[in-house]
Fold these 2 entries.
Entry 1:
Amino acid sequence: MDDVWSMVHAERAALVDDLQRSDHRRWDEPSPCPGWAVHDVVAHLVDTARTTRIGFVVGLARAGFDFDRQNARGVARERGATPAATLGRLRAVTRRRTTPPAPLDTRLVEEIVHGEDVRRPLGLVRAYPTPAVVRALRLQARTPASFGGAKELVARVRLVATDTDLALGEGPEVRGAALALLLAACGRPTAPGELAGPGTGALRDPA
């Protein structure tokens, strides 16, 4: 458990460092999360870092058990009047160890995938620690879609990481760096050339 939290804290700190150097005028750029700008995603990371198990349940009930509505309320609550204000809030929660009622590894998925939702529109690049990315990808591969995972999708293809010793699933092969595989498994777009293999189409467009 301590290992996971150390990874989570490292990712939060790295994102704060990157965002300090970013052009705050670009925080209105759309992110890969439909309907959310970069600024909204940063606010969401603040909100999820503050979330406790009890607080999550209470908030979900108040949102009429509508997960999207709960997330929208969290973004509205934690989004500051300026990017600098929101960044200050993110900095303040860097070392928190609270979590919703979910496997702890979901905190890694949250920080890495949303980290890319923020970085890619801003032209920022991070070399994520491979163990953190692999741990996040393994969680997604064993978690059903109804709980935010990609178990059903990964069951139809074989994910093969080209930067580490990792292969998951059965079916047509999809090759790429572990980060690109994680993003695709989470429904995020990847750049041309990041993924290859006969299963790539099925992973990018599961319908």
Note: The chain is about 55% helix and 5% strand.
Entry 2:
Amino acid sequence: MESKINNTIVVIPSYNEAKTIGSVVRDIVGMGLSVLVIDDGSFDNTERIALDSGAMVLRHKKNLGKGLSIREGIKHVMEKTKYEWMIMMDADGQHHPEDIPGLMDATCRGDIDIINGNRMGQTKSMPRARYWTNRFTSWVLSRICGQHIPDSQCGFRLMKVSALAKLKLTSEKYDIESEILIQAAEGGMVIKSVPVRTIYGEEVSEIHPVHDTIRFFSLVSKYGPKRKG
């Protein structure tokens, strides 16, 4: 089953992204894809701009976290739509819609459950602290998953809805991205990576260095290393 325009939806968790959400949504809609924005309690015009740009919007009354937003998006796609593939990407402009066809084309290469974006081929503009943190966490996740995952922290990925339905996600924050990969690997699912561009501008990361590092190691200790082969 290949990812195509008519069986794929893009889900974008958003929090105070009024500056960028409009252009991101318009570019995706212009490709013929449907877009679902999860407005996670924004106090700017994220919801209105997303709607005016052609997206469907689910809105939280207060900020709940990226993990809960993604889980709600997955639930909505599974229960309220008939899409077979779901693309997850950020709203701040770091993920370029022009890379979406590369993710979709990779589904032609066999029975693959998750196509993960890989920014590590172009890291010149990536902050050094983020680069080394990503290298380390990707090494750890690769060992746990028993599959090579060069960029485990990339939130730009394409996933089978039928595969997502088998996961029992509990993460509420940014560790959701790692939890998806770990549970998918535990379930025997195939994860592949394709290059995507690294785009960094003036946006301020919502990742908390201390709290999110603690969450990552808590997640690692929960699942533990599982070597295969």
Note: The first strand starts at residue 8 and ends at 14.
